[in-house]
Automatic annotation (TrEMBL):
The lineage of its organism: Eukaryota, Metazoa, Ecdysozoa, Arthropoda, Hexapoda. This is Glyceraldehyde-3-phosphate dehydrogenase. Its EC number is 1.2.1.12. The record marks 234 as: Activates thiol group during catalysis. Pathway: Carbohydrate degradation; glycolysis; pyruvate from D-glyceraldehyde 3-phosphate: step 1/5. Transmembrane segments: none annotated. It comes from Graphocephala atropunctata.
């Protein structure tokens, strides 16, 4: 039987964990204190303070109302996130369709709240949200809407060069919900300490990177990854076809998504090398698309420099989930399957029952992630982190 709380790490490991926790706490505390003080009237009047907080809420626009765009709206509204969605742009979707697909979701269930339309506006829990059908970001009136941040979730503007078009139309900053070749990438819980507020366009990397990076960081800090292979067993995405159809790049992805297991590529390993430079060149990866609607898993098989039993690895992850990775990583110690994690807000859920070792230096680590909901929670977290600066 696994002894979860038998901590057998060295003093060096404990010091490292405490240092990481302290650094993360300092970063978040200082930024959120700054935001709080900037929004406080100093008069002691509660109503005035609430009014000021409303003024200081980040105004967010969404470009691309697909799976991630709609998840962002859901999370912001259903969980009362401290941000205000003011507009949605999608050239391929009428306002009526936006309302319908927000209200009803085959994977995550009905929207918790009221959704309607008023002319060309979405009405969500009584709040009107502008809708647009512009193909080019430069034509979206972000300036008139006083938008602070654009969630770029269309999948079309994934480079800093193309995403900057949102800045030209008046947005203050842009967050790309995909890996980027030229925009700096940030993974919550991993490399926020390197965030540079002068950067106007950043990337939240991919859902797979957000699962892999925290796991790899903890394992590497404790046991040092020498090299590794990662496979993501990934649910289907909206770009795939239900029946065989032509595909321009990866021909396999044109085959019927509901009939096949489809090998594909993933940039997650390379992205991990960008957010964790110490692992650059040490990991490579592939993807296998499988016919489930949501929730994916990663299989990280790696060689370690330091010997570690599976209990050692579990203890390190338990320490992290209760410390610097709280809310980012979780641990599952029961007989779970993919549907158990639909709606999970964690980036990475380590499966201790499914993970195994050949020896103390060669291990296979399994972790689950809701590639829609969990990932989008990090997108919202990143916006809150970016906005926690004195500017009001």
């Amino acid at each position: 039987m696994l002894k979860l709380f038998q901590f057998r790490q060295s003093n060096t490991l404990l010091a490292s964990s405490l240092k990481a926790a302290q650094r993360t706490l300092i970063i978040f505390t200082s930024r959120f204190k700054s935001a709080k003080s900037c929004c406080s009237s100093g008069s002691g009047d509660r109503e005035e303070e609430e009014d000021m907080r409303d003024v200081c809420l980040p105004k967010v626009g969404i470009n691309g109302f697909g799976r991630i765009g709609r998840m962002a709206m859901r999370i912001a509204v259903e969980h009362g996130s401290p941000l205000e969605i003011v507009a949605v742009n999608d050239p391929g979707m009428k306002t009526e369709h936006m309302a319908y697909l927000l209200k009803y979701d085959s994977t995550h269930g009905p929207f918790v709240g009221d959704v309607g339309i008023d002319r060309n506006k979405l009405v969500v829990d009584g709040k009107k949200i502008g809708t647009y059908n512009e193909v080019e970001p430069k034509n979206i009136p972000w300036k008139d809407l006083e938008v602070d941040y654009v969630i770029e979730s269309s999948g079309k503007f994934t480079t800093a060069k193309t995403a900057k078009k949102h800045l030209e139309s008046g947005a203050r900053k842009v967050l790309i919900t995909a890996p980027s070749t030229d925009a700096p990438m940030f993974v919550v819980g991993v490399n926020l300490d390197s965030y540079d507020s002068s950067k106007k366009v950043i990337s939240c990397a991919s859902c797979t990177t957000n699962c892999l990076a925290p796991l790899a960081k903890i394992v590497h800090e404790n046991f040092e990854i020498v090299e590794g292979l990662m496979t993501t067993v990934h649910s289907i995405t909206s770009t795939q076809k239900p029946l065989d159809s032509p595909a321009t790049k990866n021909w396999r992805l044109g085959r019927g998504a509901l009939q096949n297991l489809i090998p594909s590529s993933t940039g997650a390993a390379k992205a991990v090398g960008k957010v964790l430079p110490e692992l650059e060149g040490k990991l490579t990866a592939m993807s296998v698309r499988v016919p489930v609607a949501n929730v994916s898993l990663i299989d990280l098989t790696c060689r370690l420099k330091k010997e570690a039993s599976m209990d050692d690895i579990l203890c390190a992850l338990c320490e992290a989930k209760d410390g610097p990775m709280m809310g980012i990583i979780d641990v599952a110690c029961e007989e779970v399957v993919s549907s158990d994690f639909i709606g999970s807000h964690y980036s990475c859920i380590y499966d201790s029952k499914a993970s195994l070792a050949l020896n103390k230096k060669f291990v296979k680590l399994i972790a689950w992630y809701d590639n829609e909901y969990g990932y989008t929670c990090r997108v919202i977290d990143l916006i809150k982190f970016m906005h926690a600066e004195p500017k009001c």
